[in-house]
Amino acid sequence: MRSCPSWAGSPSDGHAHPAVRYGPRPSAAGGHWFVSFLVDDQATTPAQHAMPDTAVGVDRGVKVAAVTSDGEFFDRSFITAGETVRYRCLQQQLARTNKGSANRARVRAHMNKIMGRVRDRRGDFCAQTAATLTAKNALVVLEDLKTRRMTASASGTRAEPGSRVVQKRGLNRAILDKGWHRLELALASVARYTGTRVVKVHPAYTSQRCAACGFVTETNRESQAVFRCKAAGCGHTAHADVNAAINIKHAAGHAVSACGDLGNSRSVKQEPVGRATGRTPA
Predict the structure, then answer these.
(1) Annotated catalytic residue within 177, 184, 218, 241
(2) CA distance 118 to 173
(3) Which of 8, 19, 154, 230 is the least buried, fewest Cβ under 10 Å from its Cβ?
(4) Of 13, 83, 143, 184, which is the active-site residue?
(5) Could you say which DSSP state residue 216 is in?
(6) Is 120 among the catalytic positions?
(7) Which segments of 144-269 are extended strands (E)?
């Protein structure tokens, strides 16, 4: 027997409530059985965090799963090289099977078993990362990323086909693989035990703004990892994700302008800026 409790409830309810579920897990989860018990552990959310003056910003990315404003990097691979090769072979086998056949069901079962292990590792990673962040910080700040919208297909229809479909598919896969939404849920769950507040801020400018002087231009971010401020007299340099995490942390203290719908061709973390000044239009 395998016990896999699934937590339910809100961070502000004062108690941890495991959800009750009985029966077999879906085949997509590997075909295992599990049982969950509802237990009142009498735990209540602390009125105040053990370190009330601590705060951290967290930037979620496709290269590194989570980077903090303190310069910590949280990442891991959820699938081994051998599993990748094995899964690719199974995909080729699946393409050669007939729909509804026993061989097809067998191949799909093997594929689901591999993906089940990947999901378990991702869940473990998110739980451990959330526990580390909430144990050390009274405030955890995230970008308010609409993951479902960001990972929507760009294929379009036969009459109106989408653009850059292959690139968008790769981005969707990377976002889902890093478990952005699952980390957010894990933070909300474990925060009930530490008294941590989890705040989401608008993602505008976080990857373009200099954390030192506030200068905003898309050229500040020279590459995925390198940030170098182009403002005269500043020259601030940092890892691009750390710089973004600092901006996320700062955004929790004041309002951030909304950027509206930028479409699939642009990052939701970017907004138009004045080309002459490199600053946000008033």
Answers:
(1) 241
(2) 14
(3) 19
(4) 143
(5) B
(6) no
(7) 197-201, 226-228, 237-239
